[in-house]
Amino acid sequence: xxxxxxxxxxxxxxxxxxxxxxxxxxxxxxxxxxxxxxxxxxxxxxxxxxxxxxxxxxxxxxxxxxxxxxxxxxxxxxxxxxxxxxxxxxxxxxxxxxxxxxxxxxxxxxxxxxxxxxxxxxxxxxxxxxxxxxxxxxxxxxxxxxxxxxxxxxxxxxxxxxxxxxxxxxxxxxxxxxxxxxxxxxxxxxxxxxxxxxxxxxxxxxxxxxxxxxxxxxxxxxxxxxxxxxxxxxxxxxxxxxxxxxxxxxxxxxxxxxxxxxxxxxxxxxxxxxxxxxxxxxxxxxxxxxxxxxxxxxxxxxxxxxxxxxxxxxxxxxxxxxxxxxxxxxxxxxxxxxxxxxxxxxxxxxxxxxxxxxxxxxxxxxxxxxxxxxxxxxxxxxxxxxxxxxxxxxxxxxxxxxxxxxxxxxxxxxxxxxxxxxxxxxxxxxxxxxxxxxxxxxxxxxxxxxxxxxxxxxxxxxxxxxxxxxxxxxxxxx
Length: 478
Fold this sequence. Notes:
By secondary structure, the protein is mainly alpha-helical. The protein has one domain: Na+/H+ antiporter like domain (Na+/H+ antiporter like fold). It has helices spanning 2-10, 23-49, 54-60, 78-103, 110-134, 153-160, 169-193, 200-219, 224-241, 246-253, 264-281, 291-306, 311-335, 345-348, 351-377, 389-398, 403-413, 416-452; strands spanning 15-16, 64-69, 72-77, 259-260, 465-467, 474-476. The protein is globular.
C-alpha cells in the first residue's frame, strides 16, 4: 500500500523552488559570520608571516602537490590547488545564489535586479580607468588594472553587522547583489584578460559536458552526485584549456536543477495523509505498534519532505558553511601573508599600489554613485526601499572592500615584491573603505531613522487647575 502511494507521489509535476524558508537570509548570516572569520584569518596570517616562522609559513604554500592517474600527471603548488580548485567551489556557490535569486528571489524582478547591476558596472569601470591613468598601457603595472574592481561579499556584510538592526534588509540585498555582479565581472575579466593561451580541444569538451548537464536537468535527473562527477571533469577541462577554472564553477552552477518534485499543496495533502497513517500504527498503544508499517510510512514522509527541496537548494545549504568557514579562510591564510620587512617605501608608493588604493577608496564609491545617480535620473532604476542618497554613499564606500577577488587577480597579474606591495595596498584600501563606509552609514542611518519617526506630542497629564485668591480666576498651575 505504501509502495503504490509512493509511485503516485513521483508522478507529481516539477515545480519551481519553494520559498518555504529564506535561504538568502541564511546566506547573509553565514557570509556575515564568515566575514568576521576572514578578518581574523587576515590578522593571523599577517602575524605569522612577520614572526620568526614567517619564512617557513610563506614557503609552506609553495609546497608541490599533485595527482597521477595512469599516464596523466598534474603537480602544482599548494596555493594553486587553493586558488584554482577551492575557489572554483566558491564561485559555484555564487552561481547557485544567482540562479536562485533570479528564479524566486530579489533578482526575479528586472527593475530590482537592474539597480545593483548598474551600480556594479560603475564600480568596475571607474576604478579600472582610475588605475589605468596611473598605470597606462605599456607600463609595468598595466596588466593589473582589474585589481580594484571587485567587492568582497563576506567582509562587506560582516562590516554591516557593526551597525546592527538599523540596516535595512533592502540595503543588504543591494550590496550583496552588487558584490555578486562584481564577482561575475571579475570571473569574466579573468577568463578574457588573464588567459595566456587557449587550447580549443579541452575547452570544447568542457562545453560539450556542460551541454550534457543541461540536458540531464531537462530530462529530470536530480542526483547531485552525478552532477558533481561531471562538474569535476568540466573543471579539469577548463584547467587544461588555459581558461581559469573558476569560470567553470559559475557555469556548472547554472546546470543544477532548480525544481521540486511536488508543489506546496500536494505536500500538505500527502504529508497529512502520511501523518494520519503513522498515528494509526499506534492506535492500539505503543506496546502494540505496527513497527514495519510505521518505519515504511516514516521513510516515505522523509522522502516526501526532501522532494519539496530542489537540488539547487540542497547543494547551496550543504556548501554555504564550508565556503564561509573553510574555503575562504584557507584562501585568506594562503594569500594574505605579507612580510612588512620586505616592503620598501618606494614599493608602497609605486603607481601600482597607489592605483589600487585610489581605485578602491575613490574609484569604487564614485563609480557606484555616479552610475546609480544617472540611471535614476533617466528613470531606469529606483533606490532600494527605505534608502536615501546619504545611505547609498556610505554603502558605496563599503564596495571598496575588495579583498578576496582583488587578491586573487593580483596573484595572476603580479609576482615578487610588487605582488606583496599590491596585497598591502589592497588591505590598506579595504580598511580605509570599511572605516569610511561604516562612519558614513552609521550617521546616515541614524538621521534617516529620526526623520522616519512619527511626531507625537508629549502627554503632560491632566492640567493642575487652581483658583486665584485675588481675582478668583481659574489658572493652570501645571
